[in-house]
Design brief:
Blueprint lengths: L2 H5 L7 E12 L7 E9 L3 E5 L6 H9 L6 E10 L2 E2 L5 H7 L4 E4 L13 H10 L5 H14 L5 H5 L8 H13 L5 E5 L7 H18 L2 E5 L3 H7 L2 E6 L2 E7 H6 L4 H9 L23 E16 L2 E18 L3 E5 L6 H8 L10 E4 L8 E4 L13 H11 L4 H14 L16 H13 L5 E5 L7 H18 L3 E4 L3 H7 L2 E6 L2 E7 H6 L4 H11 L10
Parallel strand pairs: 3-8, 3-9, 6-7, 7-8, 13-17, 13-18, 15-16, 16-17
Antiparallel strand pairs: 1-2, 1-4, 4-5, 9-10, 11-12, 11-14, 18-19
Helix pairs in contact: 4-5, 4-7, 5-7, 11-16, 13-14, 14-15
Length: about 550
């Protein structure tokens, strides 16, 4: 599709962003990461950019920011923000220009925050480097924390990044992006790690900011429902090129390109009954053998400031009890800070519960091991070690004899539908979906009684996400795997889970069979979650 078709819809508006014929290569790659990309965005408009990993959408965002790495080069085209040619600025000039003119919200807030500084100090510093006085920066920081719905802003300001939940961290990063009142904000997967209610609140805030100040938003995401709801227009990218563009609602309701259709068909649907989506594998009858029993589980965290420990002030879990039977998939859902991740880490033995808590793992005479698969496989796989080394080390720690490890590692890759040749590859040579499959294989290597998956698909493209979910359903059928699935995505929950446990502010408020939870919610908070998720569902295809 030609660039002219994309720009026709911008006629008559004031362009805040113009990308014209942009082509970007990475060193060592013969194919461009971005090829002849052209679009413009009016002042106050929200443009969504969607596509799978490797489509070039994040590279386009980095080019706008002047953040392309040293191994990338712009081979052709121009990038202009507010009339400024970004590539023409020196590195120092770009640093001075950013903040007041353009800001970025990243997918992973931990990469954008200094672990050795309190979050309040970091947000204030982002303003002082642009000439705001320390006193004004402190006051504005507190106001921003309130505006992005952070509870107890003064207390949050005094915490370090590791002391906050993922949702709280992302709201801090959004506050930092807003701090210097930029004309353009690039949001690269900004709500991937957030629950549906927090996601809705954040994006409503962004919409409000856009209306009040005329800020231009580039929303880069693989969440098609989110883009359909909040973007004015959409550019669909595939292998570095824009294959389709248009008004968000009409494009998603009646797409012209087969690739756009494929993305829409792969998206899990909250409103779709389970029987209409789940393969036969998920109809497996579970037994009554309990592999996990947790009762009276509480976790209290102390608040630390200035090296002095105060009395415990935050109860992350409060008298939680649940069980998991063999061959079952139990989803644990709740908003950011609800305690769902804390619960999973207590069960995995990563956090110490309070003294009266009781946790029993494993059916009689069987494994008592718990394995865990985290949200970001990149941070849990050694970048300097091959996949084979990683799997065989795990097998060694699990007591598998040296002579059997290679064969077992090959079998593990086969179990997760990867070729055995991947044993010789490094993590960087794999896609995001493939790295997550390796993480699942490593978890299987421990022969666990319970496998815990903490937001395992939230960072994956919709088509890759579906294949990962189908893999888990297949493993459950073939191996009788018992899974505790922590997520905020109710579409994924309805696709994969047998039962759902809903948490709110450290308490377990309900546990119910999946279909009953969605059709007969028995708690106002559950209904709120469902309604928030339904609001971001895709419109029906007019011509599927």
């Amino acid at each position: 599709m030609g660039a002219d078709h994309i720009r026709q819809k911008d006629a008559g508006g004031e362009d805040a962003v113009v990308i014209d014929g942009l082509t970007v290569f990475y060193r060592g790659c013969n194919q461009p990461a971005v090829k002849d990309l052209s679009f413009s965005v009016r002042r106050g408009e929200c443009l969504g950019i969607v596509g799978e990993s490797g489509s070039g959408k994040s590279t386009a965002g980095m080019a706008l920011m002047g953040y392309l790495p040293s191994n990338a080069r712009i081979a052709a085209g121009h990038v202009r923000v507010g009339g400024t040619d970004v590539a023409s600025l020196s590195r120092r000039a770009q640093r001075d220009w950013r903040g007041r003119n353009i800001a970025m919200v990243y997918q992973s807030p931990m990469t954008a925050l200094n672990p050795l500084m309190t979050v309040g100090r970091q947000v204030a510093e982002a303003m002082t480097v642009h000439g705001v006085s320390a006193e004004d920066a402190e006051a504005r920081m507190a106001a921003l924390f309130e505006r992005v719905r952070l509870p107890d802003p003064q207390q949050i300001a005094g915490r370090y990044p590791h002391q906050l939940s993922g949702g709280q961290l992302q709201r801090v990063v959004i506050a930092m992006a807003l701090s210097c009142k930029p004309n353009v904000i690039v949001m690269d997967e900004p709500t991937t790690g957030l629950d549906v209610t927090t996601e809705a609140a954040i994006l409503e805030l962004v919409d409000e900011l856009r209306r009040e100040t005329g800020t231009t938003i580039l929303l880069i995401s693989h969440n098609l429902g989110l883009v359909a709801k909040h973007a004015d227009r959409v550019v669909v990218m595939f292998k570095g090129e824009a294959v389709e563009a248009g008004a968000a609602q009409s494009l998603f309701a009646c797409p012209d390109h087969d690739y756009t259709r494929a993305l829409l068909e792969a998206s899990p649907k909250v409103a779709l009954p389970r029987g209409g989506r789940v393969p036969e594998a998920t109809t497996l009858s579970v037994t009554r053998d309990r592999v996990l029993t947790a009762s009276s589980v509480s976790v209290t965290f102390p608040l630390q400031r200035g090296g002095r420990r105060r009395e415990p002030v935050f109860k992350a879990l409060d008298d939680v009890g649940l069980d998991l039977v063999k061959g079952e998939i139990l989803a644990v859902v709740g908003e950011s800070g609800s305690g769902k991740t804390t619960l999973s880490r207590v069960i995995a033995g990563l956090y110490q519960p309070d003294i009266d808590s009781r946790i029993a793992i494993g059916a009689a005479g069987e494994s008592t091991r718990v394995s865990m698969v985290f949200q970001d496989p990149t941070s849990t796989l050694n970048p300097k070690r091959t996949i084979g080394w990683t799997l065989m080390r795990t097998l060694a720690l699990s007591g598998v004899a040296r002579r059997d490890r290679l064969k077992r590692a090959e079998q593990l890759l086969e179990d997760v539908r990867l070729p055995k040749t991947y044993l010789k590859r490094l993590p960087v040579e794999l896609s995001g979906g493939e790295r997550q499959r390796v993480s699942i294989a490593r978890a299987l290597a421990q022969d666990p009684a319970v496998m815990i998956l903490d937001e395992p698909t939230s960072a994956l493209d919709v088509s890759v996400q579906k294949s990962a979910l189908d893999l888990l359903l297949d493993l459950r059928q073939r191996l009788g795997l018992s899974i505790l699935f922590v997520t905020h995505d109710l579409g994924v929950v309805r696709y994969i889970a047998d039962r759902v446990a809903v948490m709110y502010r450290g308490k377990l408020i309900t546990v119910a069979p999946t279909e009953r939870l969605f059709t007969e919610p028995d708690h106002p908070y559950v209904n709120q979650l469902i309604q928030a998720c339904m609001a971001n569902q895709m419109p029906r295809l007019v011509n599927p």
